[in-house]
């Protein structure tokens, strides 16, 4: 079954956060890392700090729109994941934070394969 993703990248260069959506997360991350995405090519290096997985393309589109257009949705998510961003952005080995539902796990560097999110019960 196809999955659709909404994700957040953090720029180490500008300390800015980028919101995006894709149906091929690993490929999209490689594109960001390689500078193939116009919006983020000058923001590199980038770190994946958060993603959400959806079974419905429409749900992922609605979520991305809410994060980009609704200040309250974006601020609510930033507030919820702020500790994760702060805690893991200073990791010496360049660790990446993956937050899926309530599961927080250290995953891989941008450009390599992100691990599959654990199921939360």
> What percent of residues adopt helix (DSSP H or I)?
25-40%
Give start-end ranges of low-pLDDT stretches.
Answer: 91-121
How many β-strand stretches? 5
CATH fold node name: GIY-YIG endonuclease
Largest sheet: 3 strands, antiparallel
Number of domains: 1
Query: What is the terminal-to-terminal distance?
Result: 21 Å
| Continuous helix count | 3
Backbone shape: globular
Integer-rounded radius of gyration = 13 Å
Q: What would you say the CATH architecture is? A: 3-Layer(aba) Sandwich
Mean pLDDT: 78
Highest-level CATH class: Alpha Beta
The percentage of residues in β strands lies in 25-35%
Main sheet strand line-up: 2-1-3
Instruction: Encode the helix/strand succession as letters.
Output: EEHEHHEE
How does the helix and strand content classify structurally?
A: alpha+beta
Write the layout of secondary structure elements.
Blueprint: E1 4-11, E2 17-22, H1 25-33, E3 46-54, H2 57-69, H3 71-89, E4 97-100, E5 103-106
Antiparallel strand pairs: 1-2, 1-3, 4-5
Helix pairs in contact: 2-3
